[in-house]
Amino acid sequence: MSDVVRDRTDRHTDLLDAAVDHVLVSGFEKMSLRTLAGALGVAHNTLTHHFGDRASLQHAILVRLAERVQRDTRAVLPEGAEPSDTVDAVLRMRTVFEWMADASRRPVWAAFYESIALAVRDPTTNRAFLSHVENDWVEPLAAEFERIGTDAGTARARAVLIVATTRGLVMDVVVSGPSGITRARDALEEFLPLVAGWIERRAPVSPSR
Fold first, then answer.
1. What's the domain count of the chain?
2. Origin, by domain of life (predicted)?
3. Interval 43-87: pLDDT, tens
4. HSE (CB half, 13 Å, CA atoms) of 164?
C-alpha cells in the first residue's frame, strides 16, 4: 500500500470514528453533511470526498457503530470463562448485562437503537449494518451451543433468544432510566435458569481426535 493510499485510508477512518463519536452525543435526527462537517471542523467537501452523499455516510456510521458495540461488548467478558460451564455462562450474562445497562453506556445504546430504526426503513441500502445487528452476537453464541452438542437449528434459536432478551432488557433500561434497572435485573434473573438448563442438559461432546 502506497503512503498516499495509506494516508487517505487513515484519514477516512479518523473521520468515520469522529462522526460516530458525534452521533453518540447528538444523534442522527439533525445530521447533515454540512452540520457534521462543522462539528468535526472540516470542510463540507471533505466528507463528500471520503463518503459521498449523506445516505452513504450514514450507512458507514451505522456499520462502524455496530462494529464498535460488538468489540466493546466482547472486551468486557470475564477472562478464562468457559461457556460450557453453567456457572461461567450465567456469570458472563450477568457481567455483560450490567456493563450494557450502566448509565454511562446510555448514549451508545440510544444511538444503536436509533440506528436500527433508521436502517429498517431502507433495508437494501443498510443491509451490511442490519447483518451486523442480526449476526454479530448470534453466531458466536450459536457456535458455543453447537460445541457442547446442541444441534445447529436449536443452537441458533437459543442464541437468538438470548440476544433478543438481553437487547430488550437494555432497551427497557434506556427507556425507563435508572428506575428501570432493578426491574431489568429481576427479569434477567428469571431468564438465567432457562439458559442454565440448556447447558446442564447438553448432549455429550465427542472427544476430539
1. 1
2. Bacteria
3. 989 999 888 888 888 888 988 988 888 888 877 766 655 555 666
4. 7
